[in-house]
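Quick log. Single chain, no ligands specified.
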Amino acid sequence: MTPTIRRLLAGRTFAALATALIPTTLTLAVIRTGSAGDLGLVLAAEMLPMVLLLPLAGVAADRWPARRVVLAADLARAAAQLGTGAMLLTGPVRIPGLAALAAVTGAAVAFGNPSARTLVAAAVPAPDRLRVNARLGVANGLAQLAGPATAGAVVLGVGAGWSSLLTGALFVCSALTLGGVRTPPPERAALRGGFLGELRAGWAETRRHPWFLANVLAHGVWHLAAGLLLTLGPLIAVESLGGAGTWVLLSQLGTAGLLLGVWAAGRLPVRRPLVAVAVASSLQALPLTAFALRLPTAVTAGAFCAAMFGVGVLSPLWETEIQRRIPLETLGRVGSFDTLISFAARPLGLAAAAPLAAVTGTAAPLLVAAVLTAAANLSVLLLRDVRAHPEGKPSLALR
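-> predicted structure:
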């Protein structure tokens, strides 16, 4: 492993852990003195800039060196979290101030995300990308597991302000690490009419890849269904599967499945990566069906673990295929549409779950979501580009 790759892995790990600390810290800080409405306002203030700014962030990722954009984004997130920590330590929770700092964080996430993907493609040679993406997936999965527990322990032990300061320090570490990643000078296409011209050119490039659009839309259905499951799953677990402890156990098993899938992604003899991505995505239908039918806990646990294993497999394979198939000079803009659909679809599922369940019950939305998820993701197999071997190579397995 080269020093560049080690620096890249370390920096992304710092950022992943810092990102995982934020939701629990904000939730505990606001709920202690505020209301559910206050919490919704703060979380919405973070989400809205993410969604609105992603297309422009994709242009920035293609226009400027990726490491500089990532550096600026991490420093902005660090400043926002340090400011949040200072606010929480020096007085009562002030919702407008927290919302403003959350908006800065959301904007920085929007600009950092496409550039981080471009940075990996620029810094890592093509034969090593699947291995690196798999390791990044493991780091992200471990961060998602450790982040909430760490934030909860710090908040309960010494206060939410210190948790935000820790988050800011981790973003500083990420900035110092990723900001030093050296990549070959990229070949930049001539600018066409400023940001708007580049944005139109990015959309034109996106439409040139039907395999990409089909998968992104299918993944949007997946994220919408995941929002429904994350809202209705705990309710069903409490009512029919033994209580809140069962949901916690299922979540832990799902995390274990995710990590196992990420670890396996670089070792399985995958001959057609996008076929594997489609099949892995369709596994989400299993827990949706299990929860809808209120199957026994053991069956539901197996279904949930299998689906999360599929997520672990598809994530590095999908990232690697995007980095291989999309030209580097347009990767930021094209990839931003992928992230945009993901960011927008899951909150929609979270918001729609309770109203739908109130009208139809919990089973119908989950069963419909299961059918749509399986159909949307398996239908991409009809495209020839999805079924094709990667550049005629027999396998992407890394041994």
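Residues 277 and 318 are 7 Å apart (CA to CA).
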